[in-house]
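Dear support,

I submitted the protein below through the web form. The confirmation email said the job was done, but the results page showed an empty box. After a refresh the structure appeared. I'm attaching both so you can tell me whether what I see now is the final result or a partial one.
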Amino acid sequence: MKTAKQTLLFESGNELAAYAAKQINYHVMGYYPITPSTQIAEYLDQMAADGEHGIALIPTEGEHSAAGLCYGASAGGGRVFNATSANGLLYALEQLPVQSGTRLPMVMNVACRTVSGPLSIKGDHSDIMYTLNSGWIILFAASPQQVYDLNICAIKIAEAVRLPVIVAFDGFFTSHQKRNSYVFADDKTVQDFVGKPNPEHTVLDPDHPITLGSYMNEPDLMNNKYQLHLAMEDAHDVIESVFAEFSKLSGRSLSPLNSYQADDAETLLFVLGSSYLTAKSAVDKLRAQGEKVGLFTLGVLRPFPSDEIANLCKSVKTIIIADRQDSYGAGGGNMSLEIRAALQKHGLTPRVLSRVYGLGGRDFFEEDALSLFELSSNQDTPDFDYLGVYPGEDDFTPKPYFHPITNDENLTGLIACSEQEGKLSIQGATVRDTLARPKRIAPGHGACPGCGIPVNLNLLLRGMEGNVVLLFQTGCGMVVTTNYPKTAFRVPYLHNLFQNGAATIGGLSKMYHKMQERGELPKGDITFIMVSGDGGLDIGMGSALGTALRNDPVILFEYDNGGYMNTGYQLSYSTPLGAKSATSHLGEKQWGKTFFHKDMPRIMASTGMPYVATAAESEPNDFIRKAAKAQYYAKNHGTSYLKCLSACPLNWGDQPNTERKVISAAVNSCYFPLYEVERGITTLTFDPEISGKKIPVADWLGMMGRTKHLCKEAYQDVREMIQSEVDARWHRLKAMSEHPDL
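What the results page shows now:
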């Protein structure tokens, strides 16, 4: 086979994963953005906007759905692609054995990242090791070049053995660091190499109907898993064959096991991923000093290259295994356990030392590799330990940064609620009335200038009497206020991930009331508030709906900034139609987001919960009054939901000092109407038509860089679609306000 023509690029691992997917021209990519893998979808979306591929890119509301979408697409017999990281991978984990157990090939890239909690977005291997028992083939790239190469090989391997394949690489190291890399100059070269898909079965063939995913008892299930085992065994030879074929085409070698200066080594160091490149320089330095040291890594984790490892290590005296992950309680990370098992299987007995390193993205330097090699010279060093931890202070006592706000301080008595014949009236809930209330969130947070989150949170909490406990889902609001070891909160605070915030605050509330009931906590009153944003009620909508249907006594507060802002502004389901984002680019073939924004308040109102409302910083007194009503209903009747439109100048493309005007325009255009649904009765609380302030939605769109293009003549059809939908929603809302039975 002749080596194909190639082009030199200076690209990152994420860019090269996207480039390979574009050249393969997959049929479908289902995805959900999560750092640090998000760029793969972003780059593919930009290429789609420019007409460079024909992949259907489908943004889902969470990684679990993305995995399900990919499973459904692969059942149709075409080629399917995905990319994820960390807790996103774990959220999708339930679907991985479904994909492999029904023998449907696909490819998923994993930019490896720390698994929460506590929350960290930096790179280690704590996520990928959860997939070892999923039945997926797992390839691991040490460089951006290998990310490209392995992605091209992955789909060919997957289809040859009918198993899904993961291409894993180090998040932020391999995923983001740019290096000179070669790509095939012609997409056809790649497509000829991988060939055309030839599925054995498809559910898109009505003339030959099949049942895929049957209910199965033993011994059939036993045989199913045995067949999966045999397929994984076949993968050994298939991987070697595909790698050899690719080597002839590209001139670059790929192998399940890669080593450096290992032929005569007495001491070998094992590291996985990008650390391999760093450790090479340490080997060179020690070799120059006459020390017989070497290095090895794996390019394939499943099927595990046990025989190759044993052959490499047959004459070695000491092996040092460095894991970027720990299998807690097992005396080493997963690679330590598996390499030890491979040695035992082949009757080899070198001294083996295990070290956990680099967790949470801690850098790995040449000096770290040298310190690992030094372990072999000390016979008293423990078999297992961590590298790079630092001792704590034995007499350390945490001290609060702020004086806690007492219940008496919070009970200003300036807000009064009275309920008569099912109607609730509020007195004293104004900006002036609540000036004396101490702020539950201290100044000094890290929010961007003009960010609406702290503004909206302070307005919300102005309406809250007494003690509060806050739960934040992951997002900008959480990240900018809780950078360890400091916190901006003067009240109790809890964090959980996007998809589970509402259930978590519901569980906390239930524990509070149960412990009071048993006399284990003193009598008192706490308001429990979940704070969500940055798309948190896309991925967390199921949990929120469950909480509302149970009618848990909590407040669900959504600051809607119209995108996944904490990951760099990808489209969310609340992003306006036509808006440009990192996953809804403008181009010859694309004009921004392609579907309308989600009407979350109406969705929540449909649960029959006691109180639903929308609020805006441009109407602060209305905001505070609704916050007070939400608190009353949460304490006395069940779940309350309050949503505000929250400015994000960084990603909206406007100026921090104009945000209140931008929010006001959203209200006046009826894009974000102000109303409440109180025990099923809808009431408009601000009507821009009556006040003479109503404006076309284009006036609001033109105030932001993300939607300013929609005001051009070329986008008139899109602009009219938006105006038509906004008008329809507004007229429906007015009718409901005028007719209480609706």
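Response: this is the final, complete result; the empty box was a page-load delay. The two ends are 71 Å apart (CA to CA).
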